[in-house]
Amino acid sequence: MFELKKIYLSEAILLRQKVILPNSALEECKYAGDESKETIHVGAYAKGVLVGVASFYKEYNSKLKGKKMYRLKGLAIDPDHRNELRGQTLILFGENLLAQNEMDTLWCKTRASNLPYYQHLGFHETGETFNHKVKGLQVLMVKHF
């Protein structure tokens, strides 16, 4: 059984730590804006166990066009559940929730190696790139609604 729903920050952080920052303290897995009332955290459950998370932040980016922007950040899928469309389904679920808030733009930053994944979901490259000291080449992606 597979279930999608809004989750609490405390749940999202645990999976972020496991997947994104495994050698970090739990507190280091929090992002700015995590506790905002406008932030939405969503989770994917398989047989009652949280296997995927994504967070959506109301965050303006001056390099993009749009009036009501959200940022996708913290997408984390348990390695045992990758290639099961969990991440894709989480993003689409979050987009549907944000549509209720009249969001017109969703953006994210991702590794260059992840471009095909986000392009498949309707995101487009903006031409904006930068080098992150740990993650390498990053690309600003956007999706307009």
UniProtKB/TrEMBL annotation:
Top EC class, one word: transferase
Presence of keyword Acyltransferase: yes
InterPro entries assigned to the protein according to its UniProt record, in alphabetical order: Acyl_CoA_acyltransferase, GNAT_dom
PROSITE patterns per the UniProt record, alphabetical: GNAT
Molecular functions per Gene Ontology: acyltransferase activity
EC number: 2.3.1.-
Xref: Pfam families: Acetyltransf_1
Protein name as it appears in the record: GNAT family N-acetyltransferase
Organism ancestry: Bacteria, Bacillati, Bacillota, Bacilli, Bacillales
